[in-house]
Amino acid sequence: MAPSITLYTFPPSQNAVRPELALLEKGLPFEKVTVDFLKGEHRKPPLVDLNPRGQVPTLVYDAGGDPIAVCESIATIRFLDDMHPEPPLMPPVGEPRRRAQAIMRIEQFQAKLDPSNLFGSVIFGRKSREELRPRIDALEAELAHWESYAVGRRYLAGDQFTLADIAVFPLLMHFEALGFEYAKRTPALGAYVEACKERPSVLQSGWLDAFAAFVRDRAPEPVLAG
Q1: What are 52-55's contacts with CB under 8 Å, separation 24+?
Q2: pLDDT tens across 24-74, in order?
Q3: CATH number of 4-83: 3.10.310.40, 3.90.420.10, 3.40.30.10, 2.60.40.10?
Q4: Residue 226 confidence (pLDDT)
């Protein structure tokens, strides 16, 4: 029997879109429940009963018996790939080089790229380019590494769209929203971003439009332009 899957999400969230992309790539049916953070719905049931931190994504996976609540975006996409290995979202162990690349990119994303994100400081903190200069310099240096990872590849581990891409691509859109010009400054990474934008799962999710509208309504300073 197919599991019943419910995804609690906030449509503009780059974290929440990750399990949605994994579900769409897998062709798994799921119910999508929007939690409006702007109205404080993340502090109320049913979300806080499932995830006391009141965060999205929260995925409820019911295969019979006690439903499982899975939180944190990377943990959730790994869980889905483990539970539903076809189609695979990681290179096989028989291709150790590509598998190592995918694993490394996920770990580097969590350890180095995601902590460099300036989006919240600009959107909510209204920090200026001058205030953020040391962090901008560090981010631009980090993006140079990711440019080298993208050279000669359609996706981060070759021609296969993997969990690494699901992890990294939404965050890269944060930097584009803040004015970073991939095509001009990191052309290989720019081509990678465009390939991800055209992915059927990304288009089907509607996330690009939801995220663009969220950004447009807040008109952030393009601190990464130039």
Answers
A1: 55/15
A2: 999 999 999 999 988 999 999 999 999 999 999 999 999 998 999 999 999
A3: 3.40.30.10
A4: 82
Six-digit token string for 117: 């994100």
Chain mean position to CA 219: 21
pTM, rounded to two decimals: 0.96
Of the candidate CATH numbers 1.10.275.10, 3.30.450.40, 1.20.1050.10, 3.40.630.30, the domain formed by 96-218 belongs to 1.20.1050.10
Question: pLDDT digit string (tens) for 158-204?
Answer: 999 999 999 999 999 999 999 999 999 999 999 999 999 999 999 99
Residues 6+ positions from 208 with CB-CB distance below 8 Å: 173, 197, 202
Condensed to tens digits (0 to 9), the pLDDT of residues 131-146 reads 999 999 999 999 999 9
Domain parsing of the chain, residue ranges: 4-83, 96-218
Please, is 122 exposed, middle or buried when counting C-beta atoms within 10 Å of its C-beta (0-12, 13-18, 19+)? buried
Distance CA 79, CA 99 (A): 17
The two three-digit tokens of residue 177, written as one number: 């929203």
Pinpoint the alpha helices (H) of the chain. Answer: 17-26, 47-50, 73-83, 96-108, 119-123, 133-150, 163-177, 182-185, 187-197, 200-205, 207-218
